[in-house]
């Protein structure tokens, strides 16, 4: 049309020159055409300008996100970059894409990136930019949950521990020091993404960012300061001008234009929806399992249940569903928060090792395909709901141009339901949704799983059962006289450790003034673990759990009539990841008493206590090759090796052949931490049994990238006593193929 206008304009000029005074009527007609052309031209210019703007950024309306000017129905999966290795990222992302996922959602881990105030680390597993670029290269989008408070079962919810020592600090409220550091870090991340061109507004993959995290859980504790903080956080984030929308999860009053989103297992049933008709309905955490703590069994959520709730959310106008987690991975080092196991969301569609967990992976893949096949009517059509029975509904999306799709829902958990819909009969399994393409063909049923279940198994390739191959270093138990810091009070644990170590020694010296018969020591601690040593021998241990936070323990001891050295090791299994006023939480011993003969009680809480931070092996950084000879190792003696508290064990091993993932079976040990070639693969705790009498986790992932073909150093710190001769090296595999494509017909 534009060409026609140009042609007419040119022709008109020529005609005018030729027939200037003659044909007034024709000239008038041409003038009218020209006028129309002008309007058309202006319209085209304005319109194309509008399209250009829409195509650059990400916008939204009440139905969905709009990317490159197009409505989007998005499935997303959470993968946290530091919970795997850069070498694993490409294959994890590939499998995620093959599972029908469009977006990868990750938190940003502040305490990894800024371990010391102003000192940043984006190397190795912390290489956020590399992770995002890998996602971009495979053609997926990114949802960047900056937080920077993230919870995430991550140590201290992602906050760096140095923040606690900033004067006047109160976390996550209208508090100037907190807002200053939060804004500084958020700005740093946003600027880093911008300078790499990673926002969708710059042609990059990041389509969404999150500020704060589930603030509603703690907001009431901060009263009106909480409300002010939420407003500030929204404004601060929006002011960073990323060109893509911001979200707040579990935050019903998220300030415009920030989108409030849902977290949970049943958001299709529980989410009242966004707080404005102009915001899309989004689900940021559809839990594929649930976090696991030591002392508990894994939480198994069925593929059918996940599919039902994801489909229901879409049927009720949802346009974004993120699975939390799609791949959980590993809490390497000391990164897990209080009591959480080292493997993270192992029950996700991709398991801890990155292997497909079937049928979960495949059943969701089929769901995504079924929904995507009807994306047009879903996004362009009008939604109506009709009742098909007392507990049965149809959600229909229909549009004259793009067609029709229906979700037939049976909410009856007990009975199959026969329903009629548009002159066809359908049989719906209990608690299920059937998806009708063209409102006619049943292409997917949430309760019908077509993908075979697979089974994961471990193959031991080496048992470390040769005593000669182990060497042991036993920690010396510090005595009061040897400690540098002394005071007549029980000090707070983390005030001294600064979270550089799990361990703090409390030591004192006790001389009974009259013979003490049948003595015992009673301890209360708000830390997680205590080990009581009297005259250098372990007298007893105790620990709490995620539900029982205070450790109370009575230990029988033997005392001499002279000075007795009492040394109590307080241990933490990660800092908390949630709750209001986290900066005020205190840990460690709160009461120590000695009882004689069950009658006389001597309170030692205000005695002179001497402190020692961390273990000797930690102080010399024994896990590193270069420091191995800083202690004296004993060897060649099975008796010397077995069952000692506070012992470091080392041995060498070769990498198992093949490319299957590798795991270390620690079931013969108690509690501690493991390093391979100087890298911590996490804490282990196999002595804390579940109610069924099993360890919560006995197999611990060693990424292949940590290994070389031969001469790998395994270092184990054991707190309680265990038998390293029972540790084994395993390869991990699943029955059937692990390749995403060949898994499904
Ligand atoms: C879905 O959106 C339509 C408007 O297209 C509205 O009429 C309907 O009530 C919404 N349904 C639900 C369950 O939110
Ligand atoms: C931590 O130590 C500081 C002084 O260094 C003290 O003011 C504060 O009360 C201590 N905190 C706890 C919980 O004991
Ligand atoms: C670990 O080893 C023990 C002892 O051999 C075995 O009973 C257990 O099944 C193993 N655990 C796993 C996860 O393979």
UniProtKB/TrEMBL annotation:
The answer to whether the entry has keyword Chloroplast is no
TM regions (residue ranges): 33-55
Localization annotation: Secreted, Extracellular space, Apoplast
- Domain named Glycoside hydrolase 35 catalytic is located at 64-370
InterPro entries reported for this sequence? BetaGal_gal-bd, Galactose-bd-like_sf, GH, GHD, Gly_Hdrlase_35_cat, Glyco_hydro_35_CS, Glycoside_Hdrlase_35
For the Beta-galactosidase beta-sandwich domain, which residue ranges apply? 393-449
- EC number annotated for this UniProt entry: 3.2.1.23
Q: Show the Pfam families listed in the entry.
A: BetaGal_gal-bd, GHD, Glyco_hydro_35
Domain of life of the organism in this record? Answer: Eukaryota
- Any idea where the Beta-galactosidase galactose-binding domain is? 646-712
The UniProt keywords, alphabetically, are: Apoplast, Glycosidase, Hydrolase, Membrane, Signal, Transmembrane, Transmembrane helix
Q: Which reaction does it catalyse?
A: Hydrolysis of terminal non-reducing beta-D-galactose residues in beta-D-galactosides
PANTHER family recorded: BETA-GALACTOSIDASE RELATED
Q: Which family does it belong to?
A: Belongs to the glycosyl hydrolase 35 family.
Q: What is this protein called?
A: Beta-galactosidase
Quote the gene name from the UniProt entry: LOC104741790
